[in-house]
Design brief:
- The chain has 381 residues and is of the alpha/beta class.
- Helix content is 59%, strand content 8%.
- The chain contains 15 helices and 7 strands.
- Helix 4 packs across helix 12.
Length: 381
Amino acid sequence: MNLLSSESVWLCLAATTVLGVILCRSKSPGQLQSQAVCLAALWGGAWLLSLSLFCNLLLFSLSCFLLYVCSSDQELLPVDQKAVLVTGSDSGFGHALAKHLDKLGFTVFAGVLDEKGSGAEELRKSCSERLSVLQMDVTKPEEIKDAHSKVIERIKDKGLWAVVNNAGIFHLPIDGELIPMTDYKKCMAVNYFGAVEVTKAFLPLLRKSKGRLVNVSSMGGTVPLQMLAAYNSTKAALTMFSSIMRQELSKWGVKVIIIQPGAFRTNIVGTNDKWEKLEKGILDQLPQDVQEDYSQDYIMLVWKNYLKYMMGKSNPDITPVLRDIQQAISAKKPSPLYAPGQLAFLWICFNSYSPTSFFDYVTLKIFSCGAAIPRALSMSN
């Protein structure tokens, strides 16, 4: 039988065409693109397995339904000066998001680590009077409480529509054994406990408005990546917390959305001076036997190679992140998960569905940190 005359093949080709048309016409292409690619891959697998016509028709119906759910209802709710709180607005995603939402007409509360810092001053100068800068270190309950009081005083009966938990910190990318416990605790304090503290403080206002809780996690909250044990663990905790809160808050009419960005270039990575100080801190606290096994040369090469790799692969244009957070805040029926960034959603799916040994092999090959290996291993080879 001629391969191109097979009904299954033609059906797969037709389905792929439909996916492509929907992809090109999507208003929010980042999320739908990844999902369409996944479904196209599913069709490719079905063709390779030579499934029956009935099975292909079933897969086609399922694909259309999933794409309809993903692509329908992109309608945005009116802004109407809805009030939104954004944490971590000194720089990066939070800073850009505060400006973006202000331009759209939202009443923005920009929580910052330092209300006298350059990021806070830039917001005051460039944004409208609708934006308020709030001193808000998310690791300090008293500052969260004070910010809560100021928000209530400003919004009065208008209500708070959304909270975006964006504040986060990074650590020196290095083997988990070498990361100091102080770094594990700092990351957890900001990236996880800070978000939980803010959520608990402002949830009564969100329940009243039946609004949105948007938590900025990371692709690393689902995908294990070497050298990021502390950071990714906090994002995994935030992702699970968000998923549970989504279930619990649904009865109140509050929608909880997780944002899991891929690699984007922001100043969360920091400067070489910062990393050199962190490297010194690591070397100072390492037991002598561990330092001998790894060596100072290995530690220096690994984090420098990793940061170089990250800078080369990360996207300086954070527009996809801003667009998806806007969707999370404003869409009539937002998706529970957005994964902006090249291949971010595909990596999440790959981790979920591939055999663990195969996933580890691929990631170790792709995310290797140069030729550096610990001294003890190099001596034994």
